[in-house]
Amino acid sequence: MVKATKKIVGVGGSPRKGNSEWMLTTLCDELTRLGADVEIFLLRKMNVKMCRGCLACEKGGKNRKGDCVIKDDMAGVYPKLLAADAIVLATPGYMGMLSGMLKNFLDRTCAVWPRLESKRLAGLAVAEEDTFQTMDNLKSYGKLLKMRWVGGVKTLAKLPTDASRIPGLATSLKRLAKKITNS
Ligand SMILES: Cc1cc2nc3c(=O)[nH]c(=O)nc-3n(C[C@H](O)[C@H](O)[C@H](O)COP(=O)(O)O)c2cc1C
């Protein structure tokens, strides 16, 4: 068992209730079972506006407060990211990359990014034919922020419930959950 205080934030970056969301909830259910304190943010249900690029959030430099001039649901996410031990990003592969929804979320973390250093990062990716750079995009984010990459699970699926029927996928997700809690 892990310490009950291990905090994990999951972020779902698909505009639909589909494969990456199933992967995220399956992983997070296992993390909870292992004793972690897990919170999931599904971007499709949230009001997260586009980053305006104003860089006002940089005030304070490395100790920036986590303030964004845009007043939306990110205000509730920043404190959770700052308190997290590990962050799990789940995304469909769109045009070989991340979903626009998740990319914008990552852009909006500009308000806290220097303070995410050393936190654990894991990724989930799904695409119909090939995830191409999707997982690398997630790793690049972690590298830029000096986070510690724990691992990722990627798979191929198209229709929203396809991933849930892939043999062995739930087992891979449970294995990743264990790695995250032990990291
Ligand atoms: C805008 C868009 C772009 C996509 N681009 C790709 C792609 O480049 N390669 C691929 O294999 N599948 C691509 N797909 C298919 C999705 O990745 C696939 O349906 C996946 O299961 C979606 O995950 P989700 O159910 O979590 O939303 C694309 C789908 C959409 C809607």
Task: Please write out the topology.
Layout: E1 7-12, H1 19-33, E2 37-42, H2 74-83, E3 86-92, H3 100-108, E4 120-127, H4 134-144, E5 148-156, H5 169-182
Parallel strand pairs: 1-2, 1-3, 3-4, 4-5
This protein binds flavin mononucleotide.
Could you explain the architecture of this structure?
The structure is a single chain. Helices cover 32% and strands 20% of the residues. It is of the alpha/beta class and 183 residues long. The protein has a single domain (12-182), classed as Flavodoxin domain (Rossmann fold), CATH 3.40.50.360. α1 (19-33) crosses α5 (169-182). Bound molecules: flavin mononucleotide (FMN). Flavin mononucleotide is lined by residues 14, 16, 18-21, 92-96, 126-130, 157-158, 160.
Write a compact overview of the structure shown.
This protein has helices spanning 19-33, 74-83, 100-108, 134-144, 169-182, and strands at residues 7-12, 37-42, 86-92, 120-127, 148-156. The chain is α/β, with parallel strands linked by helices and 183 residues long. It has one domain (12-182): Flavodoxin domain (Rossmann fold, 3-Layer(aba) Sandwich).
